[in-house]
Amino acid sequence: MTFEQLRIFLAVAERLHVTQAASHLNLTQSAVSASIAQLESQHGVRLFDRIGRRIELTEAGRLFAGEARSLLERVAETRRRLDELGEEVRGQLRIHASQTVASYWLAPRLLELRTRHPALEIALTVANTALVSSAVAEGAADIGFVEGAVRQNDLMQRVVARDELLLVVGRDHPWASRSVVDPADYASQPWVLREPGSGTRAEFEAHAASAGVAMQSLRILLELPSNEAVLSAVATGLAASVLSRRAVASALAAGEVRSVPIDHPARPFTVLTHPERHRTRAVETLLTIVAA
After folding, report:
1. pLDDT digits (tens, 9 = 90+) for 9-68
2. Which H or E element spans position 86?
3. Which end of the chain is more exposed for a tag (fewer CB within 10 A), N or C?
4. What CATH number does the domain containing 211 carry?
5. Could you tell me whether strands 267-273 and 54-57 are parallel, antiparallel, or unpaired per DSSP bridges?
6. 40 CB-near residues (< 8 Å, 6+ apart)
């Protein structure tokens, strides 16, 4: 059994589709099938059931998948530790970041990191705040960046920047000409919001609660997983939303939407690390850059 066989097996086990796994691994379908067949033959075990055109993990396959995943994670960690022994910062830095942070704040800092250390591979995953914090807690990410605080008490959290939320509407919306909107009026218009679990959504819910507005009283037409999608919907003038000033800056400058300040403190951009996991030099270097 080789590490390559483990890698191929996990790719198939996670997708339950040989063709998709082959595409992900940049291998031919026949090479992936042959590797699985050889692994099963070598150890006298069936890892997948072939049911028509589908495949499913057998019980043995399910048990082996957990072991294989743990082993490959240990190998990856060993490689990272070995990379640390050299003078150059190298290896892979796994970063998970929430959408607003990744799109409008983090990218220039990652470019600085990569320019300083060209041998370093940066793997960025964009997800909502809840998923980012979970990834750091579970070790799937070396470092995370989110909007606001998170509930995981076992994570180290440090504020590295701040951001302002704005109430945003289209040019033809009834609130477009207002300089202020009373939260008591929120229930009078429909809304398009970010999905639950996002930092923007959590901050809006906190704002509504502090203003005495129950979320159940709002007419939420859509919950969308990206700032761009929300902004596109809001620009029609049919609904209101609350988004980051950074996320709407271009649309505001182009006159596509209007904004109204809301009575809510600036929210923090927070970096997350795990206190019990090894911090590579790449992590330490990035922490220095974002703190500058």
Report:
1. 999 998 898 889 998 889 998 999 999 999 888 899 999 988 877 889 999 888 998 888
2. none
3. C
4. 3.40.190.10
5. unpaired
6. 46, 47
